[in-house]
Design a protein that fits this description.
With 228 residues, the chain is an alpha/beta fold. Helix content is 48%, strand content 17%. It has one domain (10-223): P-loop containing nucleotide triphosphate hydrolases (Rossmann fold). It has helices at residues 21-32, 39-52, 60-69, 97-106, 110-124, 136-140, 154-165, 173-189, 211-225; strands at residues 10-14, 35-38, 72-77, 80-85, 88-89, 129-133, 146-151, 202-205.
Length: 228
């Protein structure tokens, strides 16, 4: 299969933290020649601005004002696709344990979700895109052409995330594991857009699979979908 052989499709990939969504979503988008959109980065961007501006994440009025003012955009650079807030590259700033946990909290706020919903739908209007997130197939794009839900054993997920943070040396594996359990609980029990697979999502367990094998499974589903 060559890039461009697949007709424009909208692909949604959801799943819990550490399941490998980012890696396989990037790989799948590259294989298909599609746009890759990390929607989790948008929520992290909001969380970064909440922290930077000293906003109380429980202050609905302040969050509403922030949502109306914030300027988040993806841009292509020599480093790849990066996230910018008000013209500043914040791609590295949003990948910390603190911002990760704060993003989980602010993503449960209706005013934040409503503000970012329009951004995501605009990005997906032309299809030929792979959207990674937690409610892509259930809320943002319920009519997506193909939906995947990636899962993995929580210890495997925590180990992956620990290795991501290892260079920073800010958390032990046990701390990462506990944070992940808390985030899983927050994401799955929230009233607004809880983390759950869409009824028509293809569920893939990545616990013992290398990313390339997961992507191979996804490509097979995509080709089947379009009758290739």
């Amino acid at each position: 299969m060559e890039k461009g052989d697949v007709k424009p499709l909208l692909i949604a990939i959801d799943g819990p933290a550490g399941a490998g969504k980012t890696t396989v979503s990037r790989m799948l988008a590259d294989r298909l020649g599609f746009l890759y959109v990390d929607t989790g980065a948008l929520y992290r961007g909001v969380a970064f601005e909440v922290a930077s501006r000293g906003i109380d994440p429980e202050d609905e009025e302040a969050l509403s004002a922030l949502a109306a003012d914030i300027d988040l955009k993806f841009g292509h650079t020599e480093k790849g696709v990066r996230l910018f807030s008000g013209g500043k590259d914040i791609s590295n700033d949003i990948r910390t344990p603190e911002i990760t946990m704060l993003a989980s909290a602010v993503s449960a706020k209706p005013v934040v979700r409503e503000a970012l919903l329009g951004v995501q739908k605009q990005l997906g209007a032309k299809k030929a895109a792979v959207f990674e997130g937690r409610d892509m197939g259930t809320v943002v794009f319920p009519d997506a052409d193909v939906k995947f839900f990636l899962i993995a054993d929580i210890e495997a997920r925590a180990r992956r995330r620990f290795l991501e943070y290892k260079d920073a040396g800010s958390q032990s594996f046990e701390d990462v594991l506990e944070d992940m359990k808390t985030r899983d609980d927050n994401d799955s029990s929230r009233a607004i857009a809880p983390l759950q697979p869409a009824d028509d999502a293809v569920i893939i367990d990545s616990t013992k699979l290398p990313p390339a094998s997961v992507v191979d499974q996804m490509v097979a589903v995509v080709l089947l979908k379009q009758g290739a």
